[in-house]
Every structure is written in structure tokens, then in C-alpha cells.
Write a structure and sequence with these properties.
Distance between the termini: 8 Å
Number of helices: 4
Helix content: 25-40%
Strand content: 15-25%
């Protein structure tokens, strides 16, 4: 399976009724507050073609940050005071980060307990065996 573009993510969100608010390159993230909802962020800046997708969920209570590779939270996202996953679900040789972010949004969409569902997604549905996780996702 190949990686996805921002257009693929938008189409997927429309198909599954995911309220995606916006997609940003890291240098386009607003410095001020963001309305509640899902945001997809690419690690690259706007002059690049894109490198890695992560998801930010603003919910007015506990903001959640999901990075399938569990790299440190982007500096541009730190002001949003996020809870971030601490171990990778995606293999570092995989190009499925956009798919992982879409699956994350799908699992949290409409959640009454987003922090609990975040934990379930990152600790119960998947685990630290990234090869096994990739098989589950495909």
C-alpha cells in the first residue's frame, strides 16, 4: 500500500463523515487557538512535497495528538497542550502514516470519551509490534 495525499485524506473523510477541519503543513499551523475538530498535519513545510502525516484532535477538554511513528510532538503543536502516544504503531519503513491517521479519526469520531478511546486505539487495538500492526491495517 502506498502513502496518501492530502486529497486522498479529504476524500476519505467525506466518505466516512469525519469532520476534518483542515490539513496543514507544519509551518501553516495557526499560532492561535483552533476550533474543535480533527486536523491533519504534515511534518514538511509548505515549500516541500510532504514527509509524514500526524493527526491533532482538538476537543475543548484534552487535546490529542496521534503520530503513528511516535516521534516527539511537533514544536508548532506544543502550545495546544496535547496528550501524545508514546510508542509507534507504524513500522518506520512503512508509508502508511496517512492511513493510520484516517483510522485514528474514524475511531474517535463521535466519541463520548475521547481520551479512553484514544488509549484503546493506541494500546488495545494495536501494540508495540509494528509488523503485526501493519498486517492488521492492510
Amino acid at each position: 500500500m502506498e502513502g496518501v495525499t492530502d486529497y486522498d485524506i479529504v476524500d476519505w473523510c467525506k466518505r466516512y463523515h469525519i469532520p476534518l477541519k483542515n490539513i496543514f503543513m507544519r509551518d501553516e499551523i495557526p499560532k492561535s487557538s483552533l476550533p474543535n475538530g480533527f486536523y491533519i498535519i504534515n511534518f514538511d513545510d509548505s515549500s516541500g512535497r510532504g514527509t509524514h502525516w500526524v493527526c491533532l484532535y482538538i476537543n475543548g477538554q484534552q487535546n490529542l495528538y496521534f503520530d503513528p511513528l511516535a516521534t516527539p510532538v511537533l514544536e508548532e503543536v506544543l502550545p495546544f497542550n496535547v496528550l501524545a502516544n508514546t510508542y509507534a504503531l507504524q513500522s518506520n519503513t512503512s508509508k502508511l502514516c496517512g492511513h493510520w491517521c484516517c483510522a485514528f479519526m474514524y475511531c474517535l469520531n463521535g466519541s463520548k470519551n475521547p481520551v479512553d478511546d484514544y488509549y484503546d486505539f493506541t494500546h488495545k487495538l494495536f501494540n508495540t509490534d509494528t509488523a503485526e500492526n501493519e498486517r492488521k491495517r492492510s
